[in-house]
Structure of DUF427 domain-containing protein:
Amino acid sequence: MTHGHRITVEPSARRVRAAHGGQVLAESDEALVLKETGCPDRYYIPPRDVRLDLLTESATRTHCPFKGDASYWSLPDAPDLAWAYPDPKPDVRAIKDHLCFYEVEEV
């Protein structure tokens, strides 16, 4: 971590749900919440709690110097609405293969 930048990963105390167009894409009691300096809190949902049958992996890739390389997942009408880190940096290894959605609600 660079000076002044902090990331923590901890179990969420809440059930979370990600939906698009009225369809639930993920729902979990075992999400992890990642808190990162200067960023909104993000929920990373275990793949077993995600409707992977509805999502298609896209060609999009991004790099975060703190978390690693991300791959993205899409719906036909919502490109890159979720992402995952298949090989995250050691400090955030708990999020490996968990999916994160731009819009998640606590339920």
Summary: The chain has one domain: 7-106.
